[in-house]
Design goal:
The chain has 167 residues and is mainly alpha-helical. Helix content is 41%, strand content 8%. The protein has six helices and four strands, in the order E-E-H-H-H-E-H-H-E-H. Helix 3 crosses helix 5 and helix 4 packs across helix 5. The two termini are 23 Å apart.
């Protein structure tokens, strides 16, 4: 899917959207699809309702018309501590807001795990939809981001958290 932040690969199961992948050029897409095929024991399906819903909702999000995703999610690619953190993020951090890594560590009952929260953000299989771009550093910096810092800045600007880039 072409987006203002570059091409995204969307993958879904019958249960829901299972992966959003940044920088989805041909090579990256082939590798991701091979990993998904290995994980799920077969090739990904096409035309599933969650995939269509995700594409429609992402288009609306990038147009500034959508603030909350409703596409069903398949959490198969996340488990344990990262899954707990990502669920908390999806449930508690609305459009146009940001939280620190420590907030999410506290939210899941692991007060000393702020760095582990950062690792959980890096493992997020559903970026943008599960908004890891809304997690920032406690020192006022924007922190890291698997899609690249410029992508994170653009997403935060889209949501009104940062000023829009001049060019």
């Amino acid at each position: 899917m072409d987006t203002p932040i570059g091409p995204l690969l969307l993958a879904a199961t019958a249960e829901g959207l299972v992966q959003v992948l940044f920088h989805a050029d041909a090579r990256t897409t082939r590798r991701a699809l091979a990993r998904l095929e290995q994980f799920f024991g077969g090739p990904p399906g096409t035309g599933t309702a969650p995939l269509e819903t995700a594409a429609t909702e992402l288009t609306a999000y990038f147009s500034g018309e959508l603030r909350s995703f409703t596409v069903p999610l398949d959490w198969s690619l996340s488990s344990g501590f990262p899954a707990r953190v990502l669920h908390a993020l999806a449930e508690d951090v609305p459009y146009g807001s940001v939280v620190g890594y420590q907030y999410l560590a506290d939210r899941v009952g692991e007060g000393g795990a702020a760095r582990a929260v950062g690792a959980a953000m890096g493992s997020n299989p559903l970026p943008v939809v599960v908004p890891c771009h809304r997690v920032v550093a406690s020192d006022g910096g924007i922190g890291g981001f698997g899609g690249g810092l410029e992508t994170k800045r653009l997403l935060l600007a889209l949501e009104g958290v940062l000023p829009a880039p001049l060019f």
